[in-house]
Design goal:
This protein is of the alpha/beta class. It is built from 9 helices and 9 strands. The chain starts with a strand and ends in a 5-residue tail after the last helix. The protein binds adenosine-5'-triphosphate.
Amino acid sequence: MIELERVGRSFKVKRNVVHAVHDLSFTVSAGEFVGYLGPNGAGKSTTIKMLCGILTPTSGRVRVAGLDPSRRRTTLARRIGVVFGQRTTLWWDLPLADSFELIRLLYKVERAAFRSRLDELTETLDLGSFMRTPVRQLSLGQRMRGDLAAALLHAPDVLVLDEPTIGLDVVSKAGIRDFLRRLNAEQGTTVLLTTHDLGDIERLCRRVMLIDHGRLAFDGTLEELMATAPDEATIEEVVTRLYTGSPAQ
Ligand SMILES: Nc1ncnc2c1ncn2[C@@H]1O[C@H](COP(=O)(O)OP(=O)(O)OP(=O)(O)O)[C@@H](O)[C@H]1O
């Protein structure tokens, strides 16, 4: 479903070249739920932007649902859903319901299919009580549920999430995690999840990829990740060791 083959992406900054992603190869199969971890500046957002076609790789080959994202961005948009936790894709001054209707028109989703999908998402994400509220008046947790619905209205095969639980309280986080778990298990949606919240990783991801300085530093199951450190280590300690090369303080 997602294939990267020796992908590189660099940026020219004044006279220097920053290699944000370097010689990165991995494959994510249909139906997987994969955590994509890495310290600040490791290259996660750059990878995600290449998956959606926002950025073109400087070298190598990217395929999502068999498509080259930078060349087939419009076609790919029908197969992929993307949520950036720190930014909303909803219309700030419009009620949530109107944002959804605009998305339906943009994606050319047929009205009956849209209605049943929206009904299902309204129930599972509990959107009913704020459907007529302008997005700017929503709480962060409500807005995030709205953004998730917006990304899923066209029933994409792949969902890419960039920090979807950032700033959420424990109850809201649990609700979003439960929703994502069910989406993956019941509908087979492939999920790539970028987060700094290791609770998200522990509770959701069977497989974890860790990127550091633009290169893949670990790719394996959650159990294999935990086995890289002594038995009693917490996931925070395991990941700190991998980020810094030394045990957590
Ligand atoms: N448009 C850009 N121009 C120049 N440098 C960039 C650009 N985008 C990213 N970079 C650089 O590429 C590197 C990787 O950045 P990226 O945003 O992909 O990291 P990240 O893993 O998503 O970090 P974070 O966890 O902090 O969000 C960083 O050194 C960053 O400064």
